[in-house]
Amino acid sequence: MPLSVPRSSRLVGLPAAACALAAPTPRSHAGGQGTGGRRWGQALGLLLSVLGLPAAAQAPALPPPDSVQLERLGYMSTFPPEGEQRIDQSNAYKYPQLRWVVQHLRELQPTRNIRRGPAPASPLPAAPKPLGGLQFEDAQGQKITVDEWARSTYTDALLVLHQGRLVYERYDNSLQPSTPHLLFSVTKSFTGLMAAQLAHEGRLDPQALVTRYVPELAGSAWADMKVREVMDMTGAVRFRENYTDPSSEIFGYAWASGLLPRPPAYQGANTVYDFLKTLPKDGEHDQVFTYRTVHSEVLGWIVSRVTGRHWADLMSQQIWQKLGMEEDAYVMVDRVGTPLQGAGLNATARDLARVGEMLRLGGRFNGQKIFDAAVIEDTARGGDRDKFKAGGLQAARPGYSYRNQWWVLHNADGAYEAAGVHGQFIHINPAAQMVVIKLSSHPVAGAAFTHATTLKAWAALAQAVR
Amino acid sequence: MPLSVPRSSRLVGLPAAACALAAPTPRSHAGGQGTGGRRWGQALGLLLSVLGLPAAAQAPALPPPDSVQLERLGYMSTFPPEGEQRIDQSNAYKYPQLRWVVQHLRELQPTRNIRRGPAPASPLPAAPKPLGGLQFEDAQGQKITVDEWARSTYTDALLVLHQGRLVYERYDNSLQPSTPHLLFSVTKSFTGLMAAQLAHEGRLDPQALVTRYVPELAGSAWADMKVREVMDMTGAVRFRENYTDPSSEIFGYAWASGLLPRPPAYQGANTVYDFLKTLPKDGEHDQVFTYRTVHSEVLGWIVSRVTGRHWADLMSQQIWQKLGMEEDAYVMVDRVGTPLQGAGLNATARDLARVGEMLRLGGRFNGQKIFDAAVIEDTARGGDRDKFKAGGLQAARPGYSYRNQWWVLHNADGAYEAAGVHGQFIHINPAAQMVVIKLSSHPVAGAAFTHATTLKAWAALAQAVR
């Protein structure tokens, strides 16, 4: 965590999504002459304000949720869309345009289908409880209801399952139950489970060097890194997220992947994998948890090499077709069809609920084994909490660890979760027999500002459903 | 039809797809100094050979079908794809890469979903007949079986329905029954049916000027054109398909739509609709059938204006969800989400079989009314055969006319069809109670070279199933 950016203004959570929020050119450079954190904070704040995004301070000025509802904004609703109403590559990651994009990514980017197959959808029985009015104290000690929390955190979907029954289901911001929503880093957790399953089956050795599977990375940070250090993000790779410096690696990722349009004179990597080869080591491996989307891309690469299958096909055949999903999902791909295995998955809230329930049940659902129970247990047990603490995300996620690309709360309920940068969650609470799906399009890229209240919401819901 | 290109080397069938086959830069200009047809033929031949495509002569040298099977070519099957195996925007419309692209368009382009909805798939009962061995005489008088015809015309799927039962179903070239296939100009026929239905309902006046619905076209060829002249392609618009002249309108369409990567200094239209506004009139309207993909884009624009709905949503709600489709379909969109209403649809062969059967049954299928019978009847009755004859496509399609964006054979069986440039068909033969779906990825862009045998195949199949 080398950046001397004040914690309050860092975009904590997901480099991939954070990069997606950045401007494509350095024209919006701040000219701040200060040093260290102050200068960075100024630059970042200016850049974010240009984008219409607040820097993630303790209490940024956020647009009132009612003002950024899609039904009000009317994006892309005339033929053709004109003026303010139009969303294309030039403004797709500005706010509030992002609220539309998370429901329509495939209309802007090449994608690959994750097919549900011909089987009927598996049951997701409803047993409604009036959880919307459930009151709890937020991080500031203010009373707030679940509905108010959902609304104030720009939630597009909120689903709560208890013992496999859908006790609460709320959609907002024009999201349809059938519409896949961009999940950002929730994607990583699927890649992590696939890798953990392969390790469990003995097909992938977590103690082997990455280069055993991907020799192309011999000249990079991953040259002497073990697979386990990729899975748990303790490998040391230089991947700066300096949004005011176009030499910062975050731009390389965004340009290589296609998340941001390339500058006219672009000479950089043409694909995500070619970009990964360029990243040097930065410190010692296995010392500190360092959250880097590029690790997930490497892990996905390894999974494809071990299986000989495309990530999207694995997702379809091993997960989507078995779980009895309601809808196809999809993943964004780069210019040569490589999936964004750290940030590009899109799926519906209900189908994610099935994933959560499968995990809660130890890897089985819809009469099928999806993952071995040992894989789920290994994930839920968590990773190294000291390395996590040293990694700088402790303030937002106190006591957490990271294992197999899942966030583990280490609370009394044994909870763990997948999380995306604008407030996407698959939250599993085994003790409360509860799964929560939250799909949001929050104006702040990162959990630092919201997560303290998120934790209180999880606890209140768990108490209410028991 | 102003081009003085020898008929044998014209890319007959679909400007949209033809443009998709053209090189993005003028570097491959032929320097021929001849005049008229000869010079054009030379230039086109050279360009096509650069692309690996034969000019559509009477007997072009085609790659042996076995040599261009995807299982043999192995495109995009390693992670990442390297060298010859890689397909991206730079070679996506070369041959045989095109064979992969027609099964994977969404992995290269932004697209919009056409959702099938939650209903179970409608029955498509099988009653197999050994039609593969059926022998008939091809255009040259040679005996050929249906299987040989399918193979030799680079067919990816061939389905024959008789009285609603699937009597023959063949897939090749790795196409899965569940994989949507690019349909090129078959797309137009859906747009045409939508418009005809709106006309039948009195919501769209075919005798009104286009500008009543789309005033933005007031400065273009469509300024004084009637809607009917768009529906039946008798409007006179300048849309040259000179593949060696980058000022030719075909490039404008390809660059505006995103079908071809834009040249570095591109200053042209950013969207398909902006491009349409630039096209001038070329002669008098309502004189001659002049096949132009841009008419279909205008017609789709009109449909969206009348309904206030996106083409993909109309396709889903009015067709895909009602017919009980097996799979979602999708359509390519330009940079602002406008669908390519003349060339961008992708769907499975089985779902197209349901469309064909619905048409054969007069607009009803799966217990639902999709179109009014009068709309189907109006379409099947055909358009003006004299205007068609004057249009220059008579050699390939003798006796045909074009109505509501459908090709009408005017044969004894009352047959009509939708057709795409690389050999995609929905062929309906009411008298024989037969529907044929043929999805191909033929190396020649155009029907001139193949259609005489296609007609003989239709006739042989109709005779066999009766």
Automatic annotation (TrEMBL), chains A, B:
The record, for SUPFAM superfamilies, names: beta-lactamase/transpeptidase-like
The cross-references to InterPro entries, in alphabetical order and at most eight, read: Beta-lactam-related (IPR001466), Beta-lactam/transpept-like (IPR012338), Diverse_Enzym_Activities (IPR050789)
Which ranges does the record mark as transmembrane? none
Q: Which Pfam families match?
A: Beta-lactamase
Which keywords does UniProt give here?
Hydrolase
Q: Which residues form the Beta-lactamase-related domain?
A: 155-447
Q: Name one GO molecular function term.
A: hydrolase activity
Protein name per its UniProtKB record: Serine hydrolase
* Native source species: Curvibacter cyanobacteriorum
